[in-house]
């Protein structure tokens, strides 16, 4: 039992690290826990991924992020957040999953993890959304050829690849695998391409127009088989040969964890967690939300650049209460 912590921060992504920095600078006793590696979501981004944001918008703790590119890359971000963690001497326990949060009689919390048990006055939940993919809900989705995560285009050389989706990740997968020798088909639910980085969209549009990448718009997959995929299009059903389905359909936060510990969510599809907009405190006293988790299913609302402020707001609120009680 590790007693007398002021804050446990669940999630060692950029926002969780930002909260740790703020807590340390305020002299609070804190610990950051994460079930994966440091900035686990960024680690799981595609190998060649480039951020839409500039480096200064990804900075935390006022520590400069220098990049050799106009837009920083995945590898640069990993290096930056490692260096920040080391430079600040942050207390981070990685590969340690929080399994339970129990309210004590005195109003503090007992946090149980896969490795230890902790007592804390406050909890900051800064978990991301990259761990649970949005499913297609079609027959055959359980086949090994169906991928919800993408890493390196080389793997798909000389393969027939079907990419589902119309946004940034779908565009990157389609273009990168095509350039590495894959035969690429896209299935897009909407009538046009979606929200794509401005330097990528014209490239993809040109590849589709010239026929290098085949695209079905206002279409959807109806069944996946070992060597084929059925697609429902405006002109009826189309069956194509296929080796891999890249379902770039987005991800969702771990709502079951929030529900398990008692954080209230709206009952609609959006699953917005309820919290005080000024303090970020949930319906559970001294339990706070930070980062993308605040947006429920609207995972496009909160990014590093507009939610890093959550860390400062929450820790300032906690620190002011601690000072008032001392």
TrEMBL record:
The keyword Flavoprotein applies. It comes from the Bacteria. InterPro entries: Bdr (IPR023856), FAD/NAD-bd_sf (IPR036188), Ferredoxin-NADP_redctase_2 (IPR050097). One of its GO terms (molecular function) is oxidoreductase activity. Keywords: Flavoprotein, Oxidoreductase. The keyword GTP-binding does not apply. This is YpdA family putative bacillithiol disulfide reductase. The lineage of its organism: Bacteria, Pseudomonadati, Bacteroidota, Cytophagia, Cytophagales.
């Amino acid at each position: 039992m590790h007693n007398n912590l002021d804050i446990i921060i669940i999630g060692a992504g950029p926002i969780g690290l930002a909260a740790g920095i703020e807590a340390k600078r305020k002299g609070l006793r804190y610990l950051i826990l994460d079930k994966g590696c440091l900035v686990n979501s960024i680690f799981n981004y595609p190998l060649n991924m480039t951020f839409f944001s500039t480096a200064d918008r990804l900075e935390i703790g006022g520590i400069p992020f220098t990049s050799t590119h106009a837009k920083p890359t995945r590898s640069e971000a990993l290096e930056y957040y490692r260096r920040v963690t080391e430079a600040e001497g942050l207390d981070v326990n990685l590969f340690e999953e929080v399994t339970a949060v129990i309210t004590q009689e005195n109003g503090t919390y007992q946090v149980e993890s896969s490795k230890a048990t902790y007592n804390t006055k406050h909890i900051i939940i800064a978990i991301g959304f990259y761990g649970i993919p949005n499913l297609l809900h079609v027959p055959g989705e359980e086949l090994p050829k169906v991928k919800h995560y993408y890493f390196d285009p080389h793997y798909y050389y000389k393969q027939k690849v079907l990419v589902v989706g119309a946004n940034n990740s779908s565009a990157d997968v389609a273009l990168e695998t095509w350039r590495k020798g894959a035969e690429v088909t896209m299935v897009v639910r909407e009538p046009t391409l979606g929200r794509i980085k401005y330097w990528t969209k014209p490239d993809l549009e040109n590849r589709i127009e010239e026929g290098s990448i085949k695209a079905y718009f206002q279409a959807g997959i109806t069944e996946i088989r070992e060597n084929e995929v059925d697609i429902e299009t405006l002109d009826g059903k189309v069956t194509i040969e296929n080796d891999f389905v890249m379902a770039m359909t987005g991800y969702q936060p771990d709502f079951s964890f929030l529900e398990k510990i008692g954080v209230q969510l709206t009952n609609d599809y959006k699953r917005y967690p309820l919290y005080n907009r000024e303090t970020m405190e949930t319906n559970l006293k001294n339990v706070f939300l930070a980062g993308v988790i605040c947006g429920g299913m609207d995972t496009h609302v909160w990014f590093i650049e507009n939610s890093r402020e959550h860390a400062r707001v929450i820790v300032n609120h906690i620190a002011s209460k601690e000072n008032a009680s001392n």
